[in-house]
Amino acid sequence: MKDVIIIGGGVIGCGIARELARYQADVLLLERGNDVSVGTSKANSGIVHGGYDAKPGTLKAKYNVMGNAMFDELSRELDFPFRRNGSIVLCFDESQIGGLDELLNRGITNGVKGMYIVKGSDEIKKLEPYVSDKAVAALVVPSGGIVSPYEMTVAYAENAAVNGVEFRFLSEVTSVINDGNGFAVTCADGYSERAKVVINAAGVYADVINNMVCGEKLHITARKGDYVLMDKTCGYLADHTMFQLPTKMGKGVLVTPTTHGNILVGPTATDVEDKDDVNTTAAELNDAFAKASLTVPTLARRNIITQFSGLRAHLDGDDFVVGESSVNGFYNVAGIESPGLSCAPAIAVDIAQSVAGKLALKQKLHFESKRKGIPQFSKLSNTEREKLIDQNPLYGKIVCRCEVVTEGEIVDSIRRPVGAKDLDGVKRRTRAGMGRCQAGFCTPRIMEIIARELGCDMADVTKRGGESQVVKGRTK
Is the pTM here over 0.90, yes or no? Predict the structure, then answer.
């Protein structure tokens, strides 16, 4: 019997796994996909919110402010990209400036520090030169930040694995039964295991898992958001994360830099019945781009390199459900939509401490708190590059030209704990295929490397697991 089974390998599940790894416990994480960060955690805005938006007194407000404050130290410990670039909420109508005051006061109530309001186009342009001339006022939130959500999730998972957490993939949970002496968990692949404690961090499927066990039923709506990603050549157009003040016409969309220098536009918001529906639509993408152009008019469609969508877990009641349920030993972390990424570090610590107290777990004498990421060849000096190539000649072979990713980085991403198994897994860990050509050039070579490292045929290499094979077989 395991001490703890965590269901879900997103940023919340992997964060909890890492925090539980501090204790002497047998912990297993089950994930329905073939990798971590394949759901909401791979396709979101990557924003570390300041904490001014959530309604005071809610779990969203509490965990947002707590989590935000943890990112600087956490990113240093686990070596994932994070930048405290600050955020701005823009107002385009003088009659609506009172809305900024409301957000300011809400943020102060929530405990957000350093916020202020600037008025007039000239003052706003001192902060963001390319913002629309129509902006009349802005709320400035210095504590806002940006993070690479999938790299953060991978970092959590790797550190958890090094410290003894077991990961099992392609294991979709189909049954959780409480028999009074713990929980029996069964997966679609036939795997089954028992645990003293179960933590439900299943994202858009958290209601399904909860409803297997608890009398208090949950209902989650999958809310789809479409995004537009711009080339790095227009990265100069935004330094802060820029939001639009909600009006009677809607909430608008954000324009933000990414930690890697691109510009991200979105998201839209469409409720969908299918919890796996991540199809983009022309109408939603056009809507996102049009609204973003209100913030930065010089955004140009020719600089779009890709478009994608992600799902948020919108829970009826509009707040998170975090903590032990009415069923002894069954914990929910459900309805984690925005600002869920910002809240993740605080939620992970809170849940881990609660479980540790419940099971009377002792802390490990030796916990490895630090994790070093894959060396990024593109960011190294020539001297550093030469030294790395001397240590490993594979770092002298460029595979992805757009992002300057080497064979050494790709091999490292596969061989590391909880390593990559497919093209998207390599991409999330190294950025190979994320550049202007969107893997048009480097895909065959990356496939060869994956096949070699995993000991399989190229026809078995997939884009994202399942039936997503890229080739059918050899022609000669």
Answer: yes
Other Cβ atoms closer than 10 A to 317: 10
Measured over all CA atoms, what is the biggest interatomic distance in the chain, rounded to whole angstroms? 69
Residue in 360, 30, 36 with CA at minimum distance from that of residue 194 = 30
Name residue 89's beta-bridge partners. Answer: 139, 243
> How many beta carbons lie within 10 A of that of residue 342, not counting itself?
26
Angle at Cα 451 formed by Cα 447 and Cα 452, nearest 5°? 115
Cα 27 from Cα 5, distance rounded (Å): 6
Instruction: Write the CB contacts of 336 (distance below 8 Å, at least 6 apart in sequence).
Output: 12, 40, 201, 203, 206, 313, 320, 343, 344, 347
Q: Which of 203, 257, 250 is nearest to 45 (CA)?
A: 257
* Both structure tokens of 227: 């995004």
Evaluate whether 342 touches 49 at the Cβ level (below 8 Å): yes
At residue 206, φ and ψ (nearest 5 deg) are -65, -30
Residues 167, 31 contacting (CB under 8 angstroms)? yes
Nearest 5°: CA angle at 177, between 171 and 178?
A: 135
Per DSSP (E only), the strands in 316-406 are: 321-324, 330-334, 398-400, 405-406
* Residue 161 · residue 417 · CB < 8 Å: yes
Token pair belonging to 389: 């190539």
Q: What is the mean pLDDT of each run of 10 residues along the chain (476 residues)?
A: 98 98 98 97 97 96 98 98 98 95 98 98 98 98 98 98 98 96 97 98 98 98 97 97 78 92 96 96 94 96 97 95 98 97 98 98 97 97 98 98 98 98 98 96 97 96 94 86
In the chain, count of helices (H) and strands (E)? 13, 22
Residue type, 143: S
Three-class secondary structure of residue 273 per DSSP: coil
Q: Do 313 and 43 meet the contact criterion of CB atoms below 8 Å apart?
A: no
**DSSP readout, 107-160?**
HHHHT--S-EEEESHHHHHHH-TTS-TT--EEEEETT-EEE-HHHHHHHHHHHH
Q: What are phi and psi of 351, to 5 degrees?
A: -65, -45
Active site residues: 49
Picking from 395, 407, 400, the residue whose alpha carbon sits closest to that of residue 439 is 400
Strands 2-7 and 183-187: unpaired
Cα–Cα dist 392/397, whole Å? 10
Three-state DSSP class for residue 195: strand
Provide the residue type at 184 as one letter. Answer: A
Give CA–CA dist 419/270, Å, rounded: 33
In degrees and rounded to multiples of 5, residue 42 shows phi and psi of -95, -15
